[in-house]
Design goal:
Layout lengths: L1 H10 L3 H7 L1 H27 L1
């Protein structure tokens, strides 16, 4: 039981969850995924035209 508690403590680091939940992080993530989707769409269209 002690080992399980220790593992949980290791996962819950004070810095990480708050960073992931922050609006700035989500904004960056969505911007990056939008950019990636746009690039993939461009490549697909270029490939279809050929």
């Amino acid at each position: 039981m002690v080992q399980i508690a220790d593992k949980r403590k290791g996962k819950e680091r004070p810095g990480r969850p708050s960073i992931r939940r922050s609006p700035e992080y989500k904004a960056k993530l969505s911007a990056a995924s939008d950019l990636l989707a746009a690039k993939m769409e461009e490549k697909r269209l270029a490939w279809e035209i050929k």
